[in-house]
């Protein structure tokens, strides 16, 4: 999120698709401080068909937050050894009245899937 007067600076379209992300957590990092996919200010975001795992501790698999745009779709991802596995909490401030925020059909093997901010939450397994 931008820290200047006026509307937030946002990426137009972000697609994170088809990745195998394997992270190794350093011994000095705190709980949950390592993140596989982190998305901030967003207009149109698609996060799908990714596999994320952490060794040497736990982390946060997918984190989408901050200013929400018209489309936020997080679907068909597999997250292992992360808690929370997926956390989605877009902000209502400045969000369009017509929007599709959806977190569907994801699997988190070792942690919860937390969906907030009015996003649709369906078909997830944790």
Provide key terms for this protein.
four-stranded parallel β-sheet, 51% strand, 126 residues, single chain
TL;DR of this structure?
The chain is an all-beta fold and 126 residues long. Helix content is 0%, strand content 51%. It starts with 10 loop residues before the first strand and ends with a strand.
Order of helices and strands: EEEEEEEEEEEEE
Category from helices, strands and their pairing: mainly beta
Overall pLDDT confidence: 86
Described by strand count, sense and barrel closure, the largest sheet is: 5 strands, parallel
How many beta strands in the DSSP annotation? 13
Shape: globular
- Gap between N and C termini, in Å? 29 Å
List unreliable stretches of 5+ residues: none
Share in helix: under 10%
In terms of DSSP E residues, the strand content is: over 45%
Number of helices: 0
Major sheet: arrangement of strands: 1-4-7-10-13
| Whole-number count of domains | 1
* Backbone CA Rg: 14 Å
């Amino acid at each position: 999120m931008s820290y200047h007067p006026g509307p937030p600076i946002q990426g137009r379209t972000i697609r994170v698709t088809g990745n195998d992300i394997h992270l190794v957590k350093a011994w000095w990092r705190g709980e949950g401080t390592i993140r596989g996919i982190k998305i901030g200010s967003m207009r149109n975001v698609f996060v799908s068909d990714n596999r994320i795992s952490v060794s040497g501790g736990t982390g946060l698999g997918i984190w989408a937050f901050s200013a929400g745009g018209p489309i936020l779709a997080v679907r068909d991802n597999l997250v292992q050894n992360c808690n929370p596995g997926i956390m989605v909490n877009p902000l209502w401030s400045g969000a369009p009245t017509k929007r599709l925020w959806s977190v569907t059909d994801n699997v988190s093997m070792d942690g919860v899937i937390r969906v907030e901010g009015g996003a649709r939450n369906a078909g997830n397994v944790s």
